[in-house]
Design a protein that fits this description.
Blueprint (H helix, E strand, L loop, with lengths): L11 E5 L4 H12 L3 E6 L2 H10 L6 E4 L5 H10 L3 E6 L14 H24 L3 E10 L13 H21 L5 E7 L16 H8 L10 H12 L10 E4 L7
Parallel strand pairs: 1-2, 1-4, 2-3, 4-5, 5-6, 6-7
Helix pairs in contact: 1-7, 3-4, 4-5
């Protein structure tokens, strides 16, 4: 019988990009709901800071670079069976078309598209994702939903992630594993704060007025949807993308 509550007691959930922002909030909320959380990322110091804030015991940190295929394989082999996977690690950088080069494309693809695909496929090959578990990929409205200036490569990676999700869901459904994307609009995190280095405070405040709900999102807004997809409440949802954007794309 499906448990439609948000009780994650006895569940183990892997979260990438957990050292800050959305990934950190998801880790904290999963732990609060009773899960054992395994956090994977590059910055050991910041991951341990997140670890110190998690409720409950038994949580772990695995440090390494998701751009490294060998690290992904070794990390996956070391993991216990998982009830949930959240791929939150990613890179956002505004680069106009005239400044795009091959090195930048390769870096963006490696972090935002190749790494999530390799992580999911490696976990599946090693049978580390339990049947009837849930995988959540963090995408963006930039890509398959809208476009925006200086975001063409970033949008391409996020659109590609949503395409991967659709096809992967058909194969994973054979073992009742669900996979979905969450596509946020602008969320105020440490990562997006760098935009303030290139855009004035007045311009940012003006941009917020483009959102019917009058503000940018918060990590908690995204984490709430993620926990829904990880829980039994989302047990009949797979292969789709949920847009969280304060009404931006409704216009």
């Amino acid at each position: 019988m499906i448990d439609y509550t948000y009780n994650f007691s006895g569940k183990t959930i892997l979260v990438t990009g957990a050292s800050s922002g959305i990934g950190k909030q998801i880790s904290m909320d999963c732990a609060k709901a009773g899960a054992t959380v395994i956090m994977l990322g590059r910055d050991e110091e910041r991951l341990n800071q997140t670890l110190s804030q998690l409720e409950g015991d038994g949580h772990q940190v695995i440090t390494g670079d998701l751009k490294d295929e060998k690290f992904i394989e070794s990390a996956c082999k070391a993991l216990p069976p998982l009830d949930g996977v959240v791929q939150s690690a990613g890179m956002m950088k505004l680069v106009p078309l005239k400044f795009i080069n091959a090195a930048f494309i390769d870096e963006m693809l490696a972090i935002n598209l190749r790494a999530p695909i390799l992580l999911v496929t490696t976990l599946q090959k090693l049978k580390k994702i339990k049947p009837a578990s849930s995988v959540v990929l963090l995408s963006s409205i930039n890509g398959a939903v809208i476009g925006s200036p200086a975001n063409s490569v970033y949008g391409a990676t996020k659109g590609g992630l949503q395409s991967f999700c659709k096809s992967a869901s058909l194969e994973l459904a054979k073992t009742s594993i669900r996979i979905n994307c969450i596509a946020p609009a602008m969320v105020e995190t440490e990562g997006t704060a760098v935009i303030g280095e290139h855009v004035s405070a007045e311009a940012i405040e003006a941009d917020k007025k483009n959102y019917p709900l009058g503000r940018y999102g918060t990590p908690a807004d995204i984490a709430g949807c993620c926990l829904f997809l990880l829980s039994g409440a989302g047990s009949w949802i797979t292969g789709t993308t949920i847009t969280i954007d304060g009404g931006f794309t409704a216009q």
